[in-house]
Amino acid sequence: MALLRAALASALVSSGLGLAAQTPRASEYQIKAVFLFNFAQFVDWPPGAFPDSTAPLVIGVLGDDPFGPYLDETVRGETVRGRPLEIHRYQKIEDIKTCHILFISASEESRLESILGNLKDRAILTVGDGAGFARRGGMIRFMSEKSKIRVRINLAAAEAAKLMISSKLLRAAEVITPGKL
Amino acid sequence: MSPGDKPIRQKLMAILRLTSGVVVVLSCAAFLVYAVLSFRQTTLKNLSTLGAIIAANSTASLAFQNEADAREILSALRAEPHIVGAALYDKDGRLFSRYPADLGVADLPVAPARDGYRFEGAHLVGFEPVAQPGNTRLGTLFIRSDLKAVYGALGVAGGTAVLVMGLAMLVAYFLSNELQGAISRPILLLAATAKGISERQDYSVRAPKLGADELGSLTDAFNQMLGRIEEQNASLRQLITELERSNKELEQFAYVASHDLQEPLRMVSSYTQLLERRYGDKLDEKGRKFVDFAVDGAIRMQQLINDLLEFSRVSTRGKPLKPVDVNRVLNTVKLNLSVAIRESDAIVTNDQLPTVMADETQLVQLLQNLVGNAIKFRPAPPARPQVHVSAQVGETECVFAVRDNGIGIAPEYFERIFVIFQRLHAKSDYPGTGIGLAVCRRIVERHGGRIWVESAPGQGSTFYFALSNGTGEQPL
Fold first, then answer.
1. Residue B137: closest CA among B91, B96, B206
2. Tell me, what's the ipTM?
3. Do B65 and A82 touch (CB under 8 A)?
4. Are B134 and A82 an interchain contact pair (Cβ–Cβ within 8 Å)?
5. Pick from B69, B94, B135: which is nearest to A171 by CB?
6. Residues of chain A found within 8 Å of residue B60, distances taken between Cβ atoms
7. Touching check for B76 and chain A: CB below 8 Å?
8. What would the CATH number be for the domain defined by A2-176?
9. Is any Cβ of chain B less than 8 angstroms from the Cβ of A175?
10. Number of Cβ within a 10 Å radius of residue A127
11. What is the rounded distance in angstroms from the CA atom of residue B412 to the CA atom of residue B420?
12. Among chain A residues, CA nearest to B138
């Protein structure tokens, strides 16, 4: 239902008939919420990332939450490979205990390098939408492109964290290697 | 020609060909159905495999809404020319990508239908769920294949079936020609033998036996029957020969006896008459009476012998039958009987009479006896004797009738009157030896006919005789 509304909104936006009640920003984060959930299906975590086979998969948001209710709505009742999903919101990096996908909010832009450095050895898929997020060491960046959301992947960063990204996802995404341009 | 009239060879061949034809057609039909069904099944399986592969590849495209990627994945379907359409729908059923790119939206389902593969009209269509294994559904793949491959397979299968059918029919045609002979040949031989026998009346031939089956037993039974007929014919022929010989001997005996009896009788008769003439005045009344008795007896014996001779001459002196106009015969009869007719004042009438195959002399004798009898056994005067001769021409025989108004005969005597020397009346009332009707019967029988009477005392009599229309003389 939420997706339908988002899609409807995005269709209206793209045709220039935006509704006052629904801002383009809201629908953009609605799609990003779905993408965050979908990453869980295309990424394999190393064996130690989960304490057991039924442990929940945790999606965390660090800093100010731009998703509003969408992230909770998206994962409600869903499972990934039999695991339930949990949404955790963190204000500080020290709060992060178990986490598998971490969305680093734009509010953490200035501290990004330190955050990424801190998470370097942990099997956490880092996602962000700030400019240069992937180039700066983040794994996946959302890019807005002609009213569409594109995915850019820093494969080396993911591999360093022992995360296996499905080739299908790689196909659908843009893969970059930092250092080269 | 009704089906029942066809020769047995044709019937057998028809049975063999029809049976094999039906079997071949049914087998080919079964083969075709099987081929089409299995090929449809294979096509379905192939399409579902293809659908599963494409669907598995499309998960990320749908999950991350990458239309370019989706288009590229779908365009891989180019390798399979039978795929005429494909589309991806997202989780909410909206069209996301389609193949080929120029395919109109109107040609695609508005929304995905029930998952699975099925035949719809001239197409095979399928809806395949798109999801990462074990995960929530991301969308639906629609795929549509034409059935040209199925039709192609049907064409090949059909061609093969027609070829096989043609070959099978050809083989069945020649085989039936060869095989039917096993049954028809003995039957045809049997039929030919039977036909030959009935045409030539030759019971000495035997039908050849070709095997020990039922037809062989039939041939055996037929040949045994022929043997028995031959034996019976031989014994019948022997019996007939014996009968003919004894009959001829008897006739000869009767003829010779009566002929040779005439000579001594003539002596007795002549000398008793001479005795009466010369010595009549020398004898007393009693002596003359004795001589009279002797003369009378001799004359009667003479008459009897003459009658016997006449009776036996019917067969010994018979002439061959030829067409005789019975009107002319009756005129001769009336001429011969003119004295009796005049004396009795009889009226002899007749219808138009036909021409029949007969011995004319004997026919005159026959009619003369019957008309003569009619006048002889006349009603008491002053009534005049009336005799009417008529004839009815039937299909196989002519029935003549001689009707009179005479004294009539009681039914119990109807048979007796035709026996030689049988008389119903005292000689004093009606003269004669009682030979007339016996001769009549003999003549009619020699002509292969019948003679009978219908009468009642005082009611007149009608004598009928039937003569065959045929030409042949019947053996006695």
1. B91
2. 0.79
3. no
4. yes
5. B69
6. 42, 166, 168-169, 171-173
7. no
8. 3.40.50.2300
9. no
10. 24
11. 17
12. A38
Check if A77 contacts B (Cβ < 8 Å). Answer: no
* Sequence ranges of the domains in chain A: 2-176
| Token duo for residue B359 | 């011995």
- Interface check for B71 against chain A (CB to CB < 8 A): the answer is no
CB proximity B338 to A under 8 Å: no
Residue ranges and CATH numbers for the domains of chain B are 3-158 (3.30.450.220), 319-468 (3.30.565.10)
* Total-model pTM: 0.55
Q: Which residues of B100-111 are buried (b: 16+ CB within 10 A; e: fewer)?
A: eeeeeeeebbee
Q: Give me the tens of pLDDT residue by residue for chain B, a chain 476 residues long.
A: 677 788 888 888 888 888 888 988 898 889 888 888 888 888 889 999 999 999 999 999 998 888 888 999 999 999 988 899 999 998 888 899 998 888 888 888 888 889 999 988 888 999 999 998 878 889 999 999 988 888 888 888 889 889 988 898 898 888 888 888 888 888 888 888 888 888 888 888 888 888 888 888 888 998 899 899 989 999 999 999 999 898 888 878 877 877 788 888 888 888 888 888 888 888 888 888 888 888 888 888 888 888 888 887 787 777 888 889 999 999 999 999 999 999 989 999 999 999 898 888 889 999 999 999 999 888 888 889 999 999 998 888 899 999 999 888 888 888 888 887 777 777 777 777 778 888 899 899 888 899 999 988 888 899 999 988 764 444 44
Residues of B in contact with A35 (CB under 8 A): 63-64
B97 three-class SS: strand
Residues of chain B contacting residue A82, judged by C-beta atoms under 8 Å apart: 134
